[in-house]
Amino acid sequence: MKRLFIVCLIVLAVQAKAQEFSLHMGYYVNGANLPNRTVIFGFDPSASDSLTDGAKWFDTEFAGGEQEYPSDPFGDIDCRWGGQVINRPYLGTGGPIDIRRRPAGESFQLPFELDIKYFGATSVKISWNKALIPPIIKHIFLSSGIFPNRPRLDLVSESEFNLPIKDSSGLYDRMIFTILYNQDKLAVGAGNTISNEVQLYPTILSPSSTISAWLETNRDITVTVKNLFGQSVFTNSINAHSGANIIHQGSLHLSNGVYIAEVIDSHTGEVLTRQKLIVE
Q: How far apart are CA 4 and CA 141, in angstroms?
């Protein structure tokens, strides 16, 4: 009887660590047979929606469990869950595990951001076991972290994604994975809002371009331009009116490349639109 009681305790302890949903993803570089990195994402009602749950999740696979990792060294081949693009800056430099708090309700949409680096790589892919995705999850869309964030594939129906390194131009340095739980259509989610009511223009800039914003209604906005590493290179707040508003006029002092611009409601912090800017 005593042995049986001990076994039951062990089983209960294991079950207490299980999360409602999680999926392992392997990150393969240059045709490796084993993953160079493994990362895990998912959700659970008891999760803190951060990278601070520690040994609560997968501590047997990652020392310390769910936690923020130090900044990766320059030139490293890396893969981790971050949050700059989906408005989760509290994730800091990211980590290998992101178990988010399960939203209330019978259906929901939940985004995750995967940040990767593949310095010097000639081929890169991520893979997963689609058979482990329960039927209640209708889709898990993978898209670029750069506007317009259109889905590239669905993890429910595919099992790997080979990154087009030669022509990606940084499009998949940050990938967005959006879980659709008990719903079929991809709706606009918090922190990843693309609105027809707010637009920036032009989107292809010269060093002396004027950046303007068009709004349907009066509101106070903050426009932030970030590079592909998530670093802010320009910020300006204005009391915008309906119609065209000049955000910046004159030299931007930006190097040629791709940037992400966000228009944020200054009072609520809501991301009103996110657009790609190209400086030529």
A: 44
Distance CA 139, CA 152 (A): 12
SS3 for 107-163, per residue? Answer: CEEEEEEEEEECCCCCCEEEECCHHHCCCCEEEEEEEECCCCCCEEEECCCCCEEEC
Q: Dihedrals φ, ψ of 16, to 5°?
A: -65, -25
Q: How confident is the model at residue 166, as a pLDDT?
A: 59
In contact, 61 and 79? CB cutoff 8 Å? no
| b/e burial code for range 97-110 (CB count within 10 A of at least 16 → b) | bbbbebeeeeebbb
Q: Is 2 exposed, middle or buried (0-12, 13-18, 19+ CB in 10 A)?
A: exposed
- Distance CA(98)–CA(13), nearest Å, equals 21
- Residues ≥6 apart with Cβ < 8 Å to 156: 130, 133, 137, 138, 139, 140
Residues 136 and 108: their CA atoms lie apart, in Å, by: 11
CB 252 within 8 A of CB 279: yes
State yes or no: cis peptide before 96, omega within 30 of 0. Answer: no
Evaluate if pTM is beyond 0.85: no
Tokens 């931007």 locate to 252
Please give the distance of CA 136 from its chain centroid, rounded to a whole number.
Answer: 22
pLDDT single digits (tens) 81-140: 998 888 788 899 999 999 999 998 899 999 999 998 877 788 889 999 999 999 999 999
